[in-house]
Amino acid sequence: MEWLIAPFEVTFVQRALWGGLLVSGICALAGTWVVVRGMAFLGEAMAHGLLPGVAAAALFGVSPVLGAAVSATAMAAGVTVLGRSPRFAADTAIGLLFAGMLALGVIIVSRSQSFAVDVTGLLFGDILAIRPRDVAYLAVALGISLIVAVLGHRAFVALALDPRTAHTLGLRPRWAQGALLALLTLAIIASFHIVGTLLVFGLLIAPPAAATYFSHRIPVIMALAAALGGFATVAGLLVSWHTGTAAGATIALIAVALFFVAAVAARLRALRSGAGTQVLVTVLALGAVLPLAGCATPEPEPPAQERPHGYVEGAEEADGPQSRLVAVDSDGAVRVVDLVTGEIADGGRAPGTQGIAGDGRFAYPGAATTTRIVDGGSWTVDHGDHMHYYRAAVRDIGDVPTGPVTGAYTDTVLTGLITETPAPRTVLLDRAALEAGTVTERGVVDGLAVPYAEHVVVVTGSGGVQVRDRAGAVVHPLSEPCPAPRGTALTRRGVVFGCADGAVVVSAEAGEFTAAKIAYPHAVPAGERAQDFAHRAGSTALVARAGERGVWVLDSRAGSWRLIETGPVLAATTAGEGSALLTLTRDGVLHALDPVTGAESARAQVLSEPYADGPPPVLEIDANRAYVNDARGRAIHEIDYRDNLRRARTFELDIAPAYLVETGR
């Protein structure tokens, strides 16, 4: 039974289950009338009519639910107005609106170059991304739907039989039609987040259509439809979990499959009395038992050996990256911006901050002699063939005696905090203790040290490259020197160290360590050497400023340097091979450049004022967005770098964010 219960032990799957069950109830109430009244084409048109509103909401960085509500309301109003015209039938008006809204949605989507990921969620839903407040909204929507269904039942029945009779009985068929459209609109808006605008029709129609094979009474059809939708939700989540398929699409497919099962069962019942009913009873019994298995009252915390794979005490597992931004002002006030929810939390204080680094989970704002450790509360664990994403509370861990941190790297045992002023030096911390909320030093290394492949790769101040075990003993001395080491980065190819003559890349394969030198293409003055590498986590392409001359692009996979002569920049980064090179100049303009030719493809004003003094702004980048801190504007801007540097969101802060780092990647 482990395969049946294990998925529902994960928090985000439990929320998805509750969300799916609530949506099943909402769709059962509205979908029954859609099936009984033969309004399937209207339901399909309404579902697809959400696309322009949802796409526009994503484009302008507002709630997709708001966009869906506006679009669905416009569609319902259009159907009501045009449906009264004596010149053409109602389905003509529905078809015109359907085509128009769908075309408008495609145009809005085509306006953006970065909708490839976003549109997948819009069209096919993302049930695993449901948040607690979404479940609350769905519960409210179900309550409203029940009230409308109960109060309007008599009018809806009369409207389904004969609108003229309904008018004679004083039931106001036009008002009833409007209420029915409102019920349908509410169901579609509530459901699109689960299965998307393209598949919502299946969840809305299939369960009620299947239920009509077994009853002709409206309340019974609604109850059976809700049960069938609940079964489709449970089965879809199970199949999705074990096979890696899209959860929303799997739920919709199973819902449609249940219709055909019901059709076959009805046929069997006609041929052999009772067979069809037995099939339906079996299906509904399974649908009732599985949710109880997943959502039973939690048992006491299991022993460590019985904990499900990926379990982390005190953390909530999610279905995707839970990125957050840690911002610090010049007075040391720390704020943490949740990029999933948009919420801003107090992260404590880091007085005297002069720089900041992060290791994917913890942020390290460093002062002259100490570094503050802030748990950003979001992180990713890479198991090679799959990943786990976690979120937890933001915590202020404490201080460690080291200067401003220029790099922070970690593995399961050690965390290395690198400071390069006045000379390279690394403080090693116990990772398990850090995750438990305490600071425990494991040693200090004179030089740049990066935990990597269950060892520590070290470049000493004299330029020697070594691989040490976690106790500090040298186990693999490497021949490639790295004179005047400054700057580090961790890529898929290995650990990169900046040197006076280029860079050294240390890689590990099957326990064997090798070092490769990537030399500059020509002699480079000290002031133009790469010392502050920036890149998207895990990518093989790195960027560093080349003094006042421009920007270096280092391809660690190809083993080559390229100098892009942009002139002086405040910050630079890239998302990886083939992606634009982003540079921020003193006038507050963000530039997107071709990483080969340096030709500008887009620019955008992102700072409220030209840079004058103080810490330079920071560019953080992940797989979808870039982030820049605007200290004078007291804000952080989210930039869609694949869509002509479109400003997707702006997070207004109560501090002036002078330093910035992203966690959760």
Plain-language structure description:
38% of the residues lie in helices and 27% in strands. It is an alpha+beta fold. A 4-stranded antiparallel sheet has the order 4-3-2-34, with no helix packed on it. A 4-stranded antiparallel sheet has the order 5-6-7-10, with no helix packed on it. A hairpin with a 2-residue loop joins strand 20 (495-499) and strand 21.
What is the strand and helix layout of this fold?
Layout: H1 2-5, H2 11-36, H3 40-48, H4 51-60, H5 64-82, H6 90-110, H7 115-124, H8 132-151, H9 153-161, H10 163-168, H11 173-211, H12 218-243, H13 247-271, H14 275-295, E1 316-318, E2 324-328, E3 333-338, E4 344-349, E5 355-358, E6 362-366, E7 371-375, E8 378-382, E9 387-391, E10 395-400, E11 407-410, E12 414-419, E13 425-430, H15 431-436, E14 441-445, E15 447-452, E16 455-460, E17 465-468, E18 474-478, E19 488-490, E20 495-499, E21 502-509, E22 512-519, E23 541-546, E24 550-555, E25 560-564, E26 571-574, E27 581-584, E28 589-593, E29 600-605, E30 619-621, E31 626-630, E32 635-640, E33 646-652, E34 659-663
Antiparallel strand pairs: 1-9, 2-3, 2-34, 3-4, 5-6, 6-7, 7-10, 8-9, 11-12, 12-13, 13-14, 15-16, 16-17, 17-18, 19-20, 20-21, 21-22, 23-24, 24-25, 26-27, 27-28, 28-29, 30-31, 31-32, 32-33
Main pleated-sheet profile: 4 strands, antiparallel
Strand order of the largest sheet: 4-3-2-34
Name the beta content range.
25-35%
User: How would you describe the shape?
Assistant: elongated
Q: Would you summarize the structure shown here?
A:
The chain is of the alpha+beta class and about 675 residues long. It is about 40% helix and about 25% strand.
